[in-house]
Amino acid sequence: MTPTLRRSHRIIWLALAVALPVGFSAAFRMNREPLTLEPIGPDVPAPLPVLVKSVNTPELTATLRRGATTADSQLEVVVKTALEVPSAVVRVRQVTGWRAIGLLSAPGLYRYPLPGADAHPTIDVVDDIHPRTLHTIQF
After folding, report:
1. Which of 14, 26, 115, 122 could, after both became Cys, cross-link 93 (CB 3.0–4.6 A)?
2. How far is Cα 13 from Cα 3, in angstroms, rounded to an integer?
3. pTM of the model
4. DSSP bridge pairs for 51
5. Is residue 123 packed enough to be buried (19+ CB in 10 Å), middle (13-18) or exposed (0-12)?
6. What is the SS3 string spanning 10-65?
7. How does pLDDT run across 82-132, given as a tens digit for each residue?
């Protein structure tokens, strides 16, 4: 190494020895506001008061709920463990055929309003990508 290169090498390393700690301490001193987490999906609606029937499987629990003074009905699904598919469609059988009412993905609580006033609906949890039924629940 020539004397000119040695001198410039020494100056660069001394500058880095001063600039790096100053830069790190300045980065730590920056006063940033904490990140706020926004929910990805809509909030889960409140449960209807009257519990009609509950069905348990190893992967999920499905509960049929009704309103105390109204004819409204609600399906409450608790996914206990991850399903074998990344996203499953919840369908309800109606007179005209099947109607999709919602999606199930990660473990958690899901509530869906049930259309119509069927006292004993049939619910299917299906994989729409590979057309197959994962669960059939008869209330």
Report:
1. 122
2. 15
3. 0.65
4. 65
5. buried
6. HHHHHHHHHHHHHHHHHHHHCCCCCCCCCCCCCCCCCCCCEEEEEEECCCEEEEEE
7. 888 888 999 988 878 888 888 888 888 999 888 776 778 888 999 988 889
